[in-house]
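Final paragraph of the annual report: two paired records, presented back to back.
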Amino acid sequence: GLARDADMFATITEKEGRAGAALAARHDLPSTPSGAAGLAAVHAASGPARQALGLTPASRLLVILSEAPE
């Protein structure tokens, strides 16, 4: 299961989820706040969180939008 296989977990607020969905929509990729949760988590990550994940300006990420807009 996910708890066994994942290296890290992230939580986001409702506001961050809405911001993630809005960010996706601005790039012509409409989704719901929960569908864009991965994007929202990366977008909301602070400096220490980005460091913990090893993210740099040169990093490339794959984010899956899992839902179409309602």
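The closing record of the year follows.
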Amino acid sequence: AKKDGKRGSVVIRVFVCPECGKIRIISKFLKAECYQCGAQMKPCDIPYTEWVEMSREEREQISEQFRNQDS
């Protein structure tokens, strides 16, 4: 079966919890709740393909930026 256009593609998103900094990778939903603290997570604007290439330190820096934002 041939997949056409965007219907066949899956968009994987990175979400960051603004409360505790936990990360979740989500493929089906536009919203996510943190498994650790229950807060509503925020989508990260970094594409998943770039996220997986980043070092642990770079990912932790981004997580820290989300926690330091004023809600």
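Helices lie at 48-51, 56-68. This concludes the annual technical report; the extension proposal builds directly on these records.
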